From TrEMBL:
InterPro entries: Ergot_Alk_Oxidoreductase (IPR051604), NAD(P)-bd_dom_sf (IPR036291), NmrA-like (IPR008030)
Residue span, NmrA-like domain: 2-259
SUPFAM superfamilies assigned to the protein according to its UniProt record, in alphabetical order: NAD(P)-binding Rossmann-fold domains (SSF51735)
Pfam families membership: NmrA (PF05368)
Superkingdom in the source lineage: Bacteria
Name of the protein this chain belongs to: NAD-dependent epimerase/dehydratase family protein
Phylogenetic classification of the source organism: Bacteria, Pseudomonadati, Pseudomonadota, Gammaproteobacteria, Enterobacterales
Coiled-coil regions listed: none
Length: 286
């Protein structure tokens, strides 16, 4: 039995899907059974509970061989990251007393840093909080998600993909949620390792290349256009961010553009993704 946290989300769902394809038994901790009804129909065992409840997580871990752990995504974190610290504390309490063969933790590239990360700070805190688990651990430090460019299906109709990359021809690490699920399933079911592994997952792709693949799907020419730094706040608010809550995204992209966060941290393994932006755009377009 393998426990998957966040099964109703993107990466948790992808991990569960790949595990079920392998014929594995999957258990999930869910707050709302209605949202997980389709998973239950596929044979997933549902345990009621919240990701900030250590006792619920402990119940879900009983009889489990291994687990996939991730933080609930927070688009607009508070400055003290309290919404992430609560589940991290619960994870640490439950996992440190569990008897597992291994655990796989979803993090982000750059999470080895301790400052200047913006929204990625939550994953840095997760890694720190689970740094002393008493069994093998694999941390997947994923690149940015291709899915975050899906707004391009709308803006690309006008021939433009606005991006926050300072240089549109400069490559940065990107991946797809399905690639994360596939890598998590591989780690959860393959040979057991010893100690702690860190996997940097993704491919180096430029905004220009993303725009070109979007253009292929839309059957028109699309160009990436860097949003001027002074226009970030207004642009993000127009994209749906609440007023005054864009700081986490802005700090994260400042770190990316300055290469404060990047692939290549010492002691990491590198795994290329297999999904392309073109596939993500085509699937979403239908």
């Amino acid at each position: 039995m393998i426990l998957v946290l966040g099964i109703t989300g993107k990466t948790g769902g992808a991990a569960a899907r790949h595990l079920l394809m392998q014929g594995r038994k999957v258990r999930a901790l869910v707050r709302d059974r209605a949202k997980a009804a389709d998973w239950e129909k596929q044979g997933v065992e549902l345990i009621d509970g919240d990701l900030s409840d250590a006792e619920a997580i402990t119940r879900a871990l009983q009889g489990v061989e291994s687990a996939y752990v991730m933080l609930p995504p927070t688009r607009t974190p508070s400055r003290d990251f309290v919404e992430s610290k609560k589940p991290i504390a619960a994870y640490a309490r439950a996992l440190k007393s569990a008897h597992l063969s291994r655990v796989v933790i979803l993090s982000s590239y750059g999470a080895e840093k301790t400052s200047g990360l913006g929204s990625i700070t939550a994953n840095a805190l997760l890694e720190q909080g689970l740094s002393d688990l008493p069994y093998p651990v694999a941390v997947i430090r994923a690149g940015g998600f291709y899915e975050n460019f899906l707004y391009g299906l709308q803006t690309g109709q006008g021939g433009v993909l606005p991006v926050f990359n300072k240089k549109t021809d400069e490559k940065s690490p990107l991946t797809a949620t399905d690639d994360i699920g596939a890598e998590a399933a591989r780690l959860l079911t393959g040979p057991v390792w010893s100690g702690r592994r860190v996997i940097e997952l993704g491919s180096l792709v430029s905004a220009d290349e993303i725009a070109a693949q979007l253009g292929d799907v839309l059957k028109r020419e699309v160009a990436a256009r860097a949003v001027p730094r002074e226009a970030w706040t207004d642009t993000l608010e127009q994209m749906g961010f609440p007023q005054g809550q864009t700081w986490g995204f802005e700090e994260m992209f400042d770190a990316l553009n300055s290469h404060w966060i990047d692939f290549g941290a010492p002691g990491t393994e590198r795994v290329e993704g297999t999904t392309t932006a073109r596939q993500i755009f085509a699937a979403a377009k239908g």
